[in-house]
């Protein structure tokens, strides 16, 4: 399987010139499968979602009309409650996760130990990917009703309940904090020691350094990390589904309920409308995140 | 305290110096210790939970009984084959498109980027509402057309192709990011032209010149996709299939110990894969930067 076993292609002048002319269209062709695939497998479901969220088909006549009632219903009563619950949980966990992530990252960056840094970053990479069902079960075994720590420390008598808003927040932080560490370590590395020395030489205290130099430089990364955490927490479904079932109102759980027919018949369109709400919020998050990420990249070179 | 007992001449300055040097060390140690507690206790507790039954002592039955458990091998094999198919499909779609964009169609680049990043805006639960809407059209409207056979084939219980398609959509942003960073480190046009001038055929250029240069990026993309597919719960459970993550939830009701054991195992497997990946990354030094950026992207929590 070396180069010699390959029959040499003729590279006469005419052939290569022809190839050069053909390269434009041919390279376009190589990108077509991807574009076709996303158009079909992503565009079709999302199109169906949009269509179903804003139309209503009369079961008797089969006529389809545009309506805003599904969207209106998705913003009322228990559905609105679930949206608010999701936003609250995501905002709270993203905020705590960001603060903890920055503290841990700063501790990692300022420690001179190379081994600690490598171990912490690898662990963050694994833990940030350790979401979903396994995470939920690890926490049930730890802090659930018959969990090891719950029994050892007798947490139940202290009013601890894993299957609640607080419990869910503790579980979410388990994968959100490492994610923040991964996002923010490069930014903290980008804070050059020279800046700190320059500030100190100019008579700045530690607080002044952070207030006037550190935070402004880090701000885009911090905000970008917060937004990324918010998006992750907002879209999370598996952890919540395996953990709380339905006792905490979250929009992802409501959509799953409506889809699997656990509620009244004819709620599918409300599920679609709720999904549309989620897409709008997630789109907003990304619209904030991407420019911030680009801005913060400026300081990391 | 030490500063207060020393001579009074330069007490403030000395105290400040001690504080500056001493405080961060305590602070750093405290942060790292607390973080280690929070992240290690659930893992340790889960392990204790699986091997220790109160009043009965230690037994590894949860792990030994695993292989014989009903559905374990089936669901694991299903998940692994889904992962293999998803990795193959995602790479087959993304690699030619990204290489083509670098070689001869730079105008397509923003289009490809947006197409690959769009799935980030749509949470898995929203995607699955769209997919199930499309699948419901099948029996309703297409039952007399040959397309209906396609719908049935796509939902085959043995190997649900629809999951491969949906997972590929979810994986595209991570695959794109990983490959894009890898390609950025390689001068694709020069490599291709040099190889072509030496008489290499197109397949030869791709297989023997481009792909070896992208080894770390490909490994990163494959790892993220594998982690995503193995842990995916939302789409599979709502479409009614039973791969690994769904199986864990199914058995959790009757065999809590075993479901936690499987969760611990899946974390260990992820860890091993990541270590393997970073080994592959250091071996291919050219594409090493892709590792860090690809780690920050994550699967569905």
Please describe the topology of this protein.
The complex is a heterodimer of chains A (301) and B (301).
Chain A lengths: L12 H42 E3 L6 E3 L2 H6 L2 H34 L3 H15 L3 H12 L4 H6 L11 H26 L2 H9 L4 H30 L2 H6 L7 H9 L8 H30 L4
Antiparallel strand pairs in A: 1-2
Helix pairs in contact in A: 1-12, 3-7, 3-9, 3-11, 4-7, 7-9, 9-12, 11-12
Chain B lengths: L1 H4 L5 H41 E2 L3 E2 L2 H4 L7 H32 L5 H9 L6 H18 L5 H8 L6 H24 L3 H10 L4 H12 L1 H17 L2 H6 L4 H9 L3 H28 L6 H7 L5
Antiparallel strand pairs in B: 1-2
Family (chain A): Belongs to the binding-protein-dependent transport system permease family. CysTW subfamily.
Membrane topology (chain A): Multi-pass membrane protein
Pfam family, one (chain A): BPD_transp_1
Structure summarized in a few sentences:
The complex is a heterodimer of chains A (301) and B (301). By secondary structure, chain A is an all-alpha fold.
Number-wise, the strands of chain B total 2
Return the CATH topology of the largest domain in chain A. MetI-like fold
Helix content percent band of chain A:
over 70%
Task: Identify the biggest protein-protein contact and residues per side.
Answer: A-B, 101 and 99 residues
Oligomeric grouping of the chains = heterodimer
CATH superfamily (homologous) name of the largest domain in chain A: MetI-like
List its traits.
heterodimer, A: 301 residues, mainly alpha, MetI-like fold, globular, B: 301 residues, 2 domains, disordered C terminus
Write structural notes for this entry.
Chain A is mostly helical. Helix content of chain A is about 75%, strand content about 0%. A two-stranded antiparallel sheet of chain A has the order 1-2. In chain A, a hairpin with a 6-residue loop joins strand 1 (about 55) and strand 2 (about 65). In chain A, helix 4 (about 115-130) packs across helix 7, helix 9 (about 205-235) packs antiparallel against helix 12 and helix 11 (about 250-260) packs antiparallel against helix 12 (about 270-295). Residues about 1-25 of chain A have low confidence and may be disordered. Chain B is globular and about 75 Å long. Chain B has two domains: about 1-60; about 70-295, MetI-like (MetI-like fold), CATH 1.10.3720. Helices cover about 75% and strands about 0% of the residues of chain B. In chain B, helix 4 (about 70-105) runs antiparallel to helix 11 and helix 8 packs antiparallel against helix 15. Chain B is mainly alpha-helical and about 300 residues long. Classes of the chains: A mainly alpha (about 300), B mainly alpha (about 300).
């Amino acid at each position: 399987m070396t180069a010699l076993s390959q029959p040499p292609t003729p590279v006469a002048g005419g052939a290569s010139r022809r190839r050069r002319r053909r390269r434009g269209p041919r390279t376009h062709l190589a990108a077509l499968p991807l574009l076709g695939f996303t158009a079909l497998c992503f565009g079709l479901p999302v199109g169906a979602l949009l269509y179903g969220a804003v139309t209503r088909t009369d079961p008797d006549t089969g006529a389809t009309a545009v309506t805003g009632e599904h969207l209106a219903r998705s913003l009322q009563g228990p559905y609105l409650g679930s949206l608010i619950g999701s936003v609250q949980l995501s905002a709270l966990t993203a905020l705590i996760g960001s603060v903890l992530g920055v503290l841990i990252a700063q501790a990692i960056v300022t420690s001179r130990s190379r081994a600690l840094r490598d171990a912490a970053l690898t662990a963050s990479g694994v833990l940030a990917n350790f979401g979903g069902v396994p995470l939920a079960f690890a926490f049930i075994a730890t802090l659930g009703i018959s969990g090891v720590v719950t029994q050892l420390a007798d947490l139940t008598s202290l009013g601890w309940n894993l299957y609640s808003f607080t419990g869910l927040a503790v579980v979410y932080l388990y994968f959100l904090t490492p994610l923040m560490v991964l996002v923010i370590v490069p930014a903290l590395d980008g804070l050059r020691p020279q800046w700190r020395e320059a500030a100190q030489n100019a008579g700045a205290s530690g607080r002044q350094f952070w207030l006037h130099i550190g935070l402004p430089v880090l701000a885009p990364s911090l905000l970008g990390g917060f937004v990324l955490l918010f998006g992750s927490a907002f879209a999370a479904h598996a952890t919540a589904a395996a953990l709380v079932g339905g006792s905490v109102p979250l929009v992802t759980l409501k959509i799953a309920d409506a889809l699997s027919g656990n509620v009244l018949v004819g709620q599918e369109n409300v599920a679609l409308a709720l999904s549309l709400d989620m897409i709008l919020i997630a789109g907003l998050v990304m619209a904030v995140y991407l420019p911030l990420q680009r801005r913060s990249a400026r300081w990391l070179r | 305290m030490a500063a207060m007992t020393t001579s009074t001449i330069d007490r403030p300055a000395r105290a400040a110096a001690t504080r500056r040097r001493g405080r961060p060390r305590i602070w750093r140690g405290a942060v790292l210790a607390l973080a280690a507690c929070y992240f290690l206790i659930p893992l340790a507790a889960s392990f204790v939970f699986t091997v220790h039954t109160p009043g009965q002592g230690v037994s590894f039955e949860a792990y030994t009984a695993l292989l014989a458990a009903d559905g374990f091998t089936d669901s694991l094999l299903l998940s692994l084959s889904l992962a293999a198919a998803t990795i193959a499909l995602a790479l087959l779609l993304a690699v030619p498109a990204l290489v083509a964009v670098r070689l001869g169609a730079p105008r397509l680049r923003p289009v490809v980027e947006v197409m690959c990043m769009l799935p980030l805006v749509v949470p898995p639960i929203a995607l699955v509402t769209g997919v199930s809407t499309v699948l419901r059209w099948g029996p309703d409207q297409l039952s007399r057309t040959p397309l209906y056979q396609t719908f049935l084939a796509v939902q085959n219980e043995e190997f649900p192709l629809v999951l491969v398609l949906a997972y590929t959509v979810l994986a595209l942003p991570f695959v794109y990011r990983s490959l894009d960073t890898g390609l950025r480190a390689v001068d694709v046009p020069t490599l291709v032209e040099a190889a072509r001038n030496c008489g290499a055929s197109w397949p030869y250029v791709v297989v023997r010149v481009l792909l070896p240069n992208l080894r770390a990026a490909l490994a990163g993309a494959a790892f993220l996709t594998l982690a995503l597919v193995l842990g995916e719960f939302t789409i599979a459970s709502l479409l009614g299939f039973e791969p690994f993550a769904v199986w864990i939830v199914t058995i959790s009701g009757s065999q809590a110990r075993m479901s936690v054991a499987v969760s611990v195992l899946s974390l260990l497997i992820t860890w091993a894969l990541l270590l393997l990946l970073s080994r592959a990354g250091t071996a291919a030094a050219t594409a090493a930067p892709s590792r860090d950026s690809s780690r920050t992207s994550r699967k569905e929590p």
